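Q: Could you fold this chain for me?
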Amino acid sequence: MFAGSSRLTIDDKGRLAIPARLRAQLADEYGKQIAVTLGPECIDIYPAAVFRRIAESIPTIADRAKRVLMQRLFVGYAVESEIDAQGRIVVPPMLRELKTLGSDVVLVGQIDHFELWPEAQWNAATAELQVSYADAFAALSVL
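A: Sure. Below is the predicted structure, expressed as structure tokens.
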């Protein structure tokens, strides 16, 4: 399970170094193959097996407009690659431009994938979400 947030930097060549603990976990659970794609609010980074499972379920979406939308955006922007020997991935230029990613980013674990946010946008989004956090947490019914 991927959890936690890390402030990171994307270099001039679009490379992002995945933190060692997450890289090891990713390799142990899924291998080094990943898919970087367009998410609803940010860039999503999936283990390749998870990405393929989601992509293979898209043809089962009954609503044609939603199915086409998912194919065009989720699959159409996806780039599969491998974590390099230095533990880096390349964030494709088209996605960096689309989500206005500069060099300062936040990588956020989301159970089976990661989200990659511009740092300022992440800070603003989480500040807004904290207003509803107690109510959402109560929905877990774990206490």
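A (continued): Residues 64-75 form the longest helix (12 residues).
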